Amino acid sequence: GPRLPLLLAGGFITAGGLCLVRLTPHTNVLLLLTAYAFIGIGFGFANAPITNTAVNGLPPARAGVAGAITSTARQLGSAIGIALAGGLVTAVGPTQLAHASRPGWILVAGCGALLLLVACVSQPREAVAGLASSRAR
Questions:
Q1: 1-17 pLDDT per residue, tens
Q2: Is the separation of the CB atoms in 95 and 25 below 8 Å?
């Protein structure tokens, strides 16, 4: 199911974000590459389960629309994130970038932690369906 990939995604995204919270102008390039790799791997683990969750359980006539909406939301989020990052880079000087980007990396780590939490507490569809049918009785 989607739980393991989402747990891995949350873990990698959180780890990468936390590595970058302590960013300074003198941060080792290897740490930067590792943190960015963690975030990239985390998003890679998250993409398939999110799309499958959006499409799964819908009638075939609506599955295409759900997949398209999910893909569009992912692309829109990426575009907005890149635009905000570009604005930050051009608004502050190179020596201030590390400090100015800290709230963004805290947000990334927080989103990863939230993904971990959701993956831990979510119930498989079968459990939810069983609960609903038992309440209907």
A1: 888 999 999 999 999 99
A2: yes
Report DSSP letters for the chain, one per residue: --HHHHHHHHHHHHHHHHHHHT--TT--HHHHHHHHHHHHHHHHHHHHHHHHHHHTTS-HHHHHHHHHHHHHHHHHHHHHHHHHHHHHHHHS-TTTHHHHTHHHHHHHHHHHHHHHHHHHH---HHHHHHHHHHHH-
Six-digit token string for 98? 């590390």
Q: Where are the domains of the chain?
A: 3-136
Residue entry with tokens 């990239």: 40
What is the Cα–Cα distance from 88 to 107, expressed in whole angstroms? Answer: 15
In this prediction, residue 127 carries a pLDDT of 46
Cα 123 to Cα 128: distance, rounded to the nearest angstrom: 7
Per-residue pLDDT of 51-97, as tens digits, reads 888 788 788 888 888 889 988 998 999 899 889 888 877 888 777 88
Distances, alpha carbon 120 to alpha carbons 6, 9, 14, in Å? 9, 12, 15
Q: Which two tokens stand for residue 59?
A: 């009638």
pTM for the model? 0.78
